[in-house]
Specification:
- The chain is mainly α.
- The chain has one domain.
- It is built from two helices and no strands.
Length: 56
Amino acid sequence: MTRTINPASILARLKNLQRERYPNMPPNTMLQLYAQQGFLARLDASPYPGVRAGGL
């Protein structure tokens, strides 16, 4: 049986994280930075040559 993710609980956890670690940063900015970091990390882990976050 799979669990479904409750978006409200995820949002609440992210807001708590934002208050604890980044009190002067708006929540939307924090979410954008986290999304960008995750995307760049996946690019860096890519097995294909030339596909890196740092360029070709």
